[in-house]
C-alpha cells in the first residue's frame, strides 16, 4: 500500500478547516456536562469494590461520543476538499461515439410497440444519414 504524498496535498476550501477548532470545545463541553450529571452515592467503605471490574458496556460508554467527534472531524476535512497534485496527465481524445440499439425480439410485438417500430422504419434512412454525417 502506498501512502499519499502529503507534501503535495492542498485543500480547495482551506478556510473550512477552522471548523476543527470547535472539536476541543465540544469535548470540553461534553466532559463538563458529564461531570455535572454524574450520579453520586455515599458509601461507608470501598472494600467491597476492591476487585470490581467494569463490564464491557461500562467501559464503552464514551464510544458513541468519540465516534461522533471523529465523524464530525472527518466531515470537516472532507468539506475542505483535500486534493493532491502529485500526478498530472493530459489526455487528448477525439471522436464521437454513437450507439443505436433496436430491440427486435418477440417481446416487442405488442400493438403499441408495432406503431413505434413503423415510425422508426420511416425515419431509418434519416437516422443513417445523420450517422454518416457524424462519421
Radius of gyration: 33 Å
Q: What number of domains?
A: 2
N-to-C order of helices and strands: EHHHEH
* Total count of helical runs of at least 4 residues: 4
Largest sheet: 2 strands, antiparallel
Number of distinct beta strands: 2
Distance between the termini: 44 Å
Can you give the helix content as a percent range?
Answer: 40-55%
Mean pLDDT: 80
Given helix and strand content, the structural type is mainly alpha
The gross shape turns out to be elongated
Q: Which residues form runs of ≥5 with pLDDT under 50? A: none
Beta-sheet strand percentage? under 5%
Task: Give a brief description.
With 135 residues, the protein is mainly α.
Amino acid at each position: 500500500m502506498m501512502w499519499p504524498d502529503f507534501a503535495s496535498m492542498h485543500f480547495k476550501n482551506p478556510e473550512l478547516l477552522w471548523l476543527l477548532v470547535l472539536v476541543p470545545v465540544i469535548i470540553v463541553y461534553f466532559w463538563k456536562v458529564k461531570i455535572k450529571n454524574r450520579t453520586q452515592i455515599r458509601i461507608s467503605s470501598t472494600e467491597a469494590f476492591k476487585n470490581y471490574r467494569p463490564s464491557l458496556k461500562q467501559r464503552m460508554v464514551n464510544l458513541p461520543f468519540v465516534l461522533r467527534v471523529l465523524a464530525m472531524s472527518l466531515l470537516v476535512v472532507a468539506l475542505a476538499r483535500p486534493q493532491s497534485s502529485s500526478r498530472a496527465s493530459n489526455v487528448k481524445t477525439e471522436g464521437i461515439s454513437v450507439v443505436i440499439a433496436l430491440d427486435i425480439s418477440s417481446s416487442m410485438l405488442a400493438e403499441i410497440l408495432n406503431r413505434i417500430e413503423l415510425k422508426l422504419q420511416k425515419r431509418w434512412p434519416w437516422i443513417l444519414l445523420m450517422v454518416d454525417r457524424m462519421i
